[in-house]
């Protein structure tokens, strides 16, 4: 959009050169148009980013805060057998991510057609209502159903990525998406901590009510503070056209590569989840410190990602998003090798922190590459497919890691993930030649 605007300005200036007495007026008009274009590029995108950060943080906290007390809530809802409590807890937790993965492309397509802000309003209000209803559940079936509903109605974080990607000047998109990604990962880090602290003070049900109230504040901020630039009718027509699909693009390889990279990233992050406590137990002599140490190991990756996301996004704006993706995947692959052979817990914490630093900028870079390689009217749907691919990795990672750790050995979880990330780095490095 900026490039085409500059082209029109140059044409106007060229025409004015041969216009005789009107030359000065045309130049003044050109300068005014340039100032107007610069003001349009600046726009309210910084305020939009701040509101999206608040909304993404609160909704992610709401989705993850039940982790520490979910088995207790399942027991309160009438499940007494220990094995059943564990099973229902897993089903209830995963239900939200399953339903969210299924509807992400739909919400992306509707965002292209009706506006990104409208989808954020829908997601924040829907999540506020769903969280309050979860606090009113009377049996475990209602809990699972409401968790499915939360996934169907939610999607604020992915919708925020879309709005920020399309409303931010392209030269600042990497930094803006990295900053938003930091808020999302901060929510993943803070959610379990808040969920562990609030229930003893206000009770489990009141914790859900409080989460719903905070998300409702995000809904109000979204409705009244976000400003979305109107899109040309041609873009809306393209979004509504049934033939707008990856096959209609001149080159679908960037899209396919980014979908695969997003799935690979989540798989790498989640593959050690099923084995981390058992793995840490081999490194810590005091059994009472195992769970706390395992929590620190998990948090270390998120903390590293929070610290690096915005910086890597800014770097990608300068040197290219594909280059940052390939290098970060390669560094993460190298860091996985020593994780398989650590002899103490602090070594594992340090290596997971460094891995978080390496992986922190990948999600914003993935979103930026998709934005730069699809028409404006297709961005929402394509980013929606990307979110679905990431959810697929989030589901496949624990399943694959648990199977490999249980049947082959825990060290092979790290080594196998290393091979996958190295292959991803190589593939992105090859595809990045000549790519945007």
Give the helix/strand layout.
Elements: H1 2-17, H2 23-42, H3 45-64, H4 70-76, H5 82-114, H6 116-134, H7 140-153, H8 156-167, H9 173-197, H10 199-202, H11 204-225, H12 233-240, H13 253-270, H14 276-281, H15 290-319, H16 321-339, H17 345-359, H18 362-373, H19 379-407, H20 411-431
Helix pairs in contact: 1-2, 3-8, 3-9, 3-11, 4-5, 5-6, 5-7, 5-12, 5-19, 6-7, 6-8, 6-11, 8-9, 8-18, 8-19, 9-15, 9-18, 13-18, 13-19, 13-20, 15-16, 15-17, 16-17, 16-18, 16-20
Quick take:
The chain is mainly alpha-helical and 436 residues long. It is built from 20 helices and no strands. Helix 8 crosses helix 18, helix 9 packs antiparallel against helix 15 and helix 13 packs antiparallel against helix 18.
Structural account:
Helix content is 80%, strand content 0%. Helix 5 runs parallel beside helix 7 and helix 6 runs antiparallel to helix 8. It folds into 2 domains: 187 residues, MFS general substrate transporter like domains (Growth Hormone, Chain: A), CATH 1.20.1250.20; 191 residues, Growth Hormone, Chain: A (Up-down Bundle). The two termini are 15 Å apart. It is mainly alpha-helical.
Task: Write out key terms for the chains shown.
globular; 436 residues; mainly alpha; Growth Hormone, Chain: A; disordered N terminus; 2 domains
């Amino acid at each position: 959009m900026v490039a085409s605007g500059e082209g029109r300005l140059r044409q106007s200036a060229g025409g004015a050169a041969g216009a005789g007495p009107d030359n000065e007026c045309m130049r003044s008009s050109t300068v005014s148009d340039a100032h107007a274009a610069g003001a349009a590029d600046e726009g309210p995108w910084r305020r939009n980013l701040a509101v999206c950060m608040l909304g993404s943080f609160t909704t992610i906290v709401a989705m993850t805060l039940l982790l520490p007390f979910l088995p207790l809530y399942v027991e309160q809802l009438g499940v007494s057998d220990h094995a059943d409590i564990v099973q229902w807890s897993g089903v209830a937790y995963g239900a939200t991510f399953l339903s969210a993965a299924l509807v992400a492309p739909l919400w992306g397509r509707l965002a292209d057609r009706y506006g990104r802000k409208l989808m954020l309003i829908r997601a924040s209000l829907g999540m506020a209502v769903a969280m309050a209803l979860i606090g009113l559940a009377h049996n475990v079936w209602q809990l699972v159903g409401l968790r499915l509903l939360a996934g169907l109605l939610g999607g604020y974080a992915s919708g925020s990525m879309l709005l920020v990607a399309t409303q931010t000047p392209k030269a600042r998109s990497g930094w803006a998406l990295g900053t938003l990604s930091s808020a999302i990962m901060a929510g993943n880090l803070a959610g379990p901590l808040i969920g562990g602290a609030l229930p003893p003070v206000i009770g489990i049900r009141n914790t859900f009510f409080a989460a719903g109230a905070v998300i409702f504040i995000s809904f109000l901020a979204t409705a009244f503070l976000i400003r979305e630039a109107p899109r040309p009718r041609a873009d809306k027509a393209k979004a509504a056209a049934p033939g707008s699909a990856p096959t209609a693009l001149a080159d679908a390889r960037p899209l396919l590569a980014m979908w695969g990279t997003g799935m690979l990233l989540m798989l790498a992050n989640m593959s050690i989840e099923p084995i981390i406590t058992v793995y840490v137990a081999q490194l810590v002599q005091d059994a009472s410190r195992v769970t706390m140490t395992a929590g620190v190991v998990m948090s270390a990756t998120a903390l590293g990602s929070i610290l690096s996301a915005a910086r890597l996004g800014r770097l990608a704006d300068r040197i290219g998003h594909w280059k940052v993706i390939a290098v970060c995947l390669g560094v993460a692959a190298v860091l996985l090798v020593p994780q398989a052979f650590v002899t103490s817990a602090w070594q594992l914490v340090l290596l997971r922190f460094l891995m978080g630093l390496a992986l922190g900028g990948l999600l914003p870079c993935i979103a930026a590459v998709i934005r730069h390689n699809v028409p404006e009217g297709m961005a929402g749907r394509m980013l929606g497919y990307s979110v679905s691919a990431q959810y697929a990795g989030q589901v496949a990672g624990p399943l694959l890691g648990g199977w490999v750790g249980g049947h082959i050995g825990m060290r092979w979880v790290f080594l196998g993930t290393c091979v996958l990330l190295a292959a991803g780095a190589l593939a992105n490095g090859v595809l990045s030649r000549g790519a945007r």
